[in-house]
Amino acid sequence: MSSNRQKSLELYERAVSVIPAGVYGHTSPAATLPIAFPYYAESAEGCTFTDVDGNRYIDFMCAYGPILLGYNHPEIEAAAREEKARGGLYNHPAKVMVELAELLTERIDFADWAVFGKNGSDMTTWALQVARQHTGRKKVLTVKGAYHGVDAWTNPSPGGVIEEDRLHIHHFSWNDLSSFEQQVNRYPGEIAAVMLTPFHHPAFAANVLPGEGFFEGIQKICNANDILIILDDIRCGFRLHEAGSHKRFPIEPDMSCYCKALGNGYPISATVGKDHLQAAAGKVFLTGSYWSDAVSMATAKRCVELVAELNIPEKLNTLGKRLITGLEEAAANAGLKVTGHEPYAMPYLTFEDDPDLRKMQRFSEICANEGVIFHPHHNWFISAAHTTEAIDDAIEIASKAFQAVASEFNS
Amino acid sequence: MSSNRQKSLELYERAVSVIPAGVYGHTSPAATLPIAFPYYAESAEGCTFTDVDGNRYIDFMCAYGPILLGYNHPEIEAAAREEKARGGLYNHPAKVMVELAELLTERIDFADWAVFGKNGSDMTTWALQVARQHTGRKKVLTVKGAYHGVDAWTNPSPGGVIEEDRLHIHHFSWNDLSSFEQQVNRYPGEIAAVMLTPFHHPAFAANVLPGEGFFEGIQKICNANDILIILDDIRCGFRLHEAGSHKRFPIEPDMSCYCKALGNGYPISATVGKDHLQAAAGKVFLTGSYWSDAVSMATAKRCVELVAELNIPEKLNTLGKRLITGLEEAAANAGLKVTGHEPYAMPYLTFEDDPDLRKMQRFSEICANEGVIFHPHHNWFISAAHTTEAIDDAIEIASKAFQAVASEFNS
Questions:
Q1: Any CB–CB contact under 8 A between B113 and chain A?
Q2: Does any CB of chain B come closer than 8 Å to the CB of residue A128?
Q3: Which of A20, A356, B333, B396 is a Cys-bridge partner for B281, taking CB atoms 3.0 to 4.6 Å apart?
Q4: Do A269 and B291 touch (CB under 8 A)?
Q5: What is the CA radius of gyration of chain B?
Q6: CA-to-CA distance for A244 and A256, rounded, in angstroms?
Q7: Which of the residue ranges A58-72, B15-29, B374-388 would you say has the lowest mean pLDDT?
Q8: Pairing status of strand B228-232 against strand B191-196
Q9: Distance in angstroms (rounded) separating the CA atoms of residues A228 and A135
Q10: Could you tell me the sign of the dihedral formed by the alpha carbons of A342, A347, A353, A355, in that order?
Q11: For the purposes of burial, counting CB atoms within 10 Å of the CB of A212, is it exposed (0-12), middle (13-18) or buried (19 or more)?
Q12: Which burial class, exposed, middle or buried, applies to B99 when counting CB atoms under 10 A from its CB (0-12, 13-18, 19+)?
């Protein structure tokens, strides 16, 4: 097959006249690789989605992370329907809010309390404010190139941002403990917190795991300087470990933020934290028009239960490893050298001698035309609905794409 | 009946050990008037909800605004189910995103484009950034005591806020054009925008409508100084006028922000704007883990359609007027003087000689015990599911509460 994208294009033409830039959000390939991928989705099931032109794809993006158990997962949908039958949004929270907070604080070792939001940024920004409230300090350290959300203190774009938004945000380099130490020494007694992701997952680049001693060093310096550790587990949470990604890449956070996979697609985010921050947390303003939405809390509760019951992180690791080793082998057979990047549950691939990602873009484009979605600029996501058959089918399609890339780039 | 709140209390006791302060969000009466109202809801239907102890209430809060057509409205739920049956959250938006943007830009006179978020604050903060991007100016004027969301530049609490967050936010007084003019003259060429609500709806105080000439004066000064007008229509939108609240209280915004009633309880917010801001809008970062959620967009589309088809704002006005005139009469019969505050679709009531709101609090508490929810500190909300019978039942219960208040406060 070769995908027809006529209806995607027609909708896009309507969109550009009523939506700034036609589309926003994490559809970056639309801007950089026009119509290499579909623009609009029609339906999804398991590990596949169908676009508005009727093309069906084996999907390795999982809605950019939220789909952990698979699209339209029966037990998650049943939990949603059950809560929704009663109502869902009221003047007050429902019982499930307390149950979800109890479950998270039981599951996550350091967590004594939990709060909930609707976006990842709701939580990273709120956690930063809790750190400022608790310490009475203004400054926050983050890793250069790390993504912590849409808010002006951190987003990757200068649009509409003023210098005051970022005046007290300072950067250091991933896996470079001395650059962290330098910043700590530059602002003695002024740093409220460091915000970290479990591994480094910048856009347009490969995953980088925490190197030997990096997290241990940060922990030691933070402990010595009363700097709080905030783990931004928005993208990784519950994919790498059932009890939070700090159990996979050891560090002891004071707060962790979750979102994405938490409700298997239902809109919910959460921050959990240690007891000593509870007073500060109670003082930082937190609400929202839909803050008491019981349906998303019910799906999160069921999802977090299933992650442990079904041993999801191990399953994703096995599936992702099969995919990545299969792709490496297929590339080698085509005479190409590629490197698969861990963690396998959220893998990525790079081509040797591909500084501008042209090979990667061409590879992804061919795969999309043949019914498999690999993102050229962003880590991928494995779900529990990926079968070994789907992965082997994807590898087979990728094999042909590797052949084509080898022939195009060698000529 | 007199409400038992045993299960609310039991859940609250569990909550305080896993949620900072036990509860957050817009449940302020929980802090100021312990257990005068229920803490947890179990189910809702039409214009009533039932708490976890099985007490059923005629509700005049509508989940603090989102419930416009009534809890569990059949046509909204059908729209949600239809979209959900296909999937809902994908790598890409669904067709309904384009359709919703088309509908809003058609319905709202000045609107040439639309974008969507999940919280009201997503949109007020983003609109502020678009104004800064477009004008290259930093400063934004807001009304003293106005609520524009949870973000640090505007929220009503000092917790975790640093001075830089609010350095370029300046205030003026509602209905005081000279105080607005003063700020404009103080910062010539530095003000990007003014953010206004359609009427003033501070907490712990009565609604205040825009006075004669106030909006006209602001419009004139803004036009003369290239200051953008952002209408924060989050709380009022689609309750006061089918085409935006600026049609009820005339002003010509450059951007308007909607949320609350937009999806009848499904989590969605929107900003619409004029053509000349489209380029700036395309440059200000905007996304979220659930930004492409098609289910909430489908409910918003159906809800906005129904608002016009069923003439909802007029219906709410008639129902609210019946409630408020009935309450005024019942109070007078009890020898109390109260004042009902417009707009009737979002009314509020104050007692004469009640500076600390003690009478209002006692009145609300008695009504809640007897099965009617009137908030003591926040404007109320009428929904299209309120029947004249429900309103008359509420007035009857209120009559007894007025008698009790009269007797308690006169002794």
A1: yes
A2: yes
A3: A20
A4: no
A5: 22
A6: 8
A7: B15-29
A8: parallel
A9: 9
A10: negative
A11: exposed
A12: middle
Q: Does A28 touch chain B (CB under 8 A)?
A: no
Q: What is the pLDDT of residues A379-394, one digit of tens each?
A: 999 999 999 999 999 9
pTM: 0.98
The verdict on a CB contact (< 8 Å) between B260 and A289 is yes
E runs forming strands in A269-394: 269-273, 338-341, 348-351, 372-373
Please name the residues in contact with B51: beta carbons below 8 A apart, sequence gap of 6 or more: A92, B3, B5, B7, B8, B38, B40, B41, B42, B57
Provide the terminal-to-terminal Cα distance of chain A, rounded to the nearest Å.
Answer: 25
Q: In angstroms, rounded to a whole number, what is the distance separating the alpha carbons of residues B48 and B60?
A: 9
- Within B245-387, residue ranges assigned H as helices are 278-283, 294-309, 312-333, 358-369
Q: What is the mean pLDDT of chain B?
A: 96
- Go through the domains of chain B in sequence order and give each one's CATH number: 6-69+311-410 (3.90.1150.10), 74-309 (3.40.640.10)
Partners of residue A155 in chain B, C-beta under 8 Å: 285
pLDDT of A335 above 90: yes
Could you say which residues from 132 to 171 on chain A have a Cβ atom under 8 Å away from some Cβ of chain B? 132-133, 138, 150-152, 155-157, 159-162, 164-165, 167-168
pLDDT bracket for residue B3 (50, 70, 90): confident
In angstroms, the CA B36 to CA B127 distance is: 38
In A, minimum Cα distance to B162 occurs at A138
C-alpha A78/C-alpha A65 separation (Å) is 21
Tokens of B375: 């908030």
**Single-letter residue type at B81:** R
Distance (Å) of CA B197 to CA B103, B190, B253, B374 = 23, 22, 11, 22
CA distance A403 to B184: 65
- CA–centroid distance for B316 within its chain: 15
